[in-house]
Structures are given as structure tokens and as C-alpha cells.
Amino acid sequence: MIRSSSATLDNGLRIVHHADSYTPMVAVDLLYGVGARDEDPGHTGIAHLLEHMMFGGSANVPDFDAELERAGGTSNAWTSNDFTNFYDVAPAANFETLLWLESDRMWGLSFSPRSLEVQQSVVIEEFKQTSQPTIRHTRPQPARTALSSAPLPMADDRAHTRPHSILDARPRQNLFPRKLHTRSGSALGSRKHSV
């Protein structure tokens, strides 16, 4: 059984620690409670862009991935409607290095114009790759067929489009207004607000 414990720091950061002495690796997983649902409906894709900006350097670490790789690690991230997830994996001996790297980018993330330009291009390219038509697989839907001849939407029929705000993004305050709203579709943005 994997042991776990949890605590909340004075600054509100909640920590859950799971220990497994049978592996020589350590993983640090951070969930930020902000995602696509927190965006202004007219400016979609900002949460995904900010996810990418988190890899653009910080106050003490100009290249996050290079430092992580130096520690023998790797990382990745993803954005959903409800939160943004970042994770790092490295040899357990470098656990403190992972914590330091994450704390530095929490404290002093760099929002340079060059980093913004690069990440906008990356996010737009990701969007293009995920918005290509996919092969439609059909499966029997007897209840639906009996009621209508219209096909049911398939999981791969999601409407993905390039959000216009990625091209217009500029570092600014209050990217996520306090008023929350629900939205359907992809964290990448919506067709209604495409360029």
C-alpha cells in the first residue's frame, strides 16, 4: 500500500504526499484550480496559452526544461475546463530540485514578449493538429435511430477552432475574472471566437 499524507500551508497551498519506497523516481504534480471555464467567453484559449507560458522561464531559471533535464527529469502539462495540471518526473535524489523549479516559476514567471510570441505559435500549431477532421466511426444506436434519422454526434465531432485571443494575447492583469461560467467544448477555444 502506498502511504499518503496531506497538509495545507499558511498561503493556502494544499499538499498531498504519496510515498512509494519501491521506485527510484519521484513525481511532482501541480493542479492549478483555473482552466478554460474561467476565461471570458469572448477570449478563449488563454488558459491553454498560459499553460505554455509556464515553460518560458522564470526569475532564476531562464529555461525550465533545460534545468529539469539536467536533473534527469521530464515534464508535461495539460489544460481542461476546470484546472491546469503540470507534472515533473525525475530521480528521487532530485526531489528538492523539482520543488525548487516549481516554486521559482510560481513566484517569478517570465512573461517576455519573445516567449509569448513563441508560445502563441506553438498553441496555434497544436490547435491546427487537433482540429483536423478525424475518421468518423459509426456504431449502432437503436434508440436514437428509432426516433430520428439524424446521426448522433460522435466524441471526435467536437468543434475545435483557433481562438482569436491567442493571436491578440498580451500580458495583462485579471486574465481570469472572478465570475465563473460554464462552457462546453474544448479548452483550446470555440469556433464562435475564431480568427
Summarize the topology:
Layout: E1 3-8, E2 14-19, E3 25-32, H1 46-53, H2 64-70, E4 74-79, E5 84-91, H3 95-108, H4 113-130, H5 142-147, H6 164-168
Antiparallel strand pairs: 1-2, 3-5, 4-5
State the gist of this model:
30% of the residues lie in helices and 17% in strands. A three-stranded antiparallel β-sheet has the order 3-5-4, with helices on one face. It has helices at residues 46-53, 64-70, 95-108, 113-130, 142-147, 164-168; strands spanning 3-8, 14-19, 25-32, 74-79, 84-91.
The CA-CA distance between the termini, in Å, is 51 Å
- Give the low-pLDDT segments: 137-183, 191-195
What's the tally of helices? 6
Largest sheet: 3 strands, antiparallel
On the 0 to 100 scale, the average pLDDT is: 75
Largest sheet, spatial ordering of strands? 3-5-4
Count all strands and give the number. 5
Q: How helix-rich are the residues, as a percent range? A: 25-40%
What share of residues are in beta strands? 15-25%
What do these coordinates show?
With 195 residues, this protein is of the alpha+beta class. Helices cover 30% and strands 17% of the residues. It is built from 6 helices and 5 strands, in the order βββααββαααα. The strands form 2 sheets. The protein has a 3-stranded antiparallel sheet, covered by helices on one side. Strands 1-2 form a two-stranded antiparallel sheet. A hairpin with a 4-residue loop joins strand 4 (74-79) and strand 5. Helix 1 packs across helix 4 (113-130). The protein is globular and about 45 Å long. The termini are far apart. The model is unreliable at 137-183 and 191-195 (pLDDT under 50).
